[in-house]
Amino acid sequence: MTTKTISSVAEPEIVKSGDERDEILQNNQDYTLFSWSKQKGTNPIPVKYGKGVYLYDYDGKRYIDFSSGLMNVNIGHGDQRVTDAVVKQMQEVTYVTPSCVTKVRGELGKKLAGICPGDLNKAFFTLCGATSIENAIKLARLYTGRHKILTRYQSYHGASYGAISASGDPRRLPADAQQAPNFVHFDLPYLYRWEYGEESLLKESTAALERVIAYESPNNIAAILLEGESGSSGCFKYY
Question: Is the pTM of this model over 0.90?
Answer without folding.
Answer: no
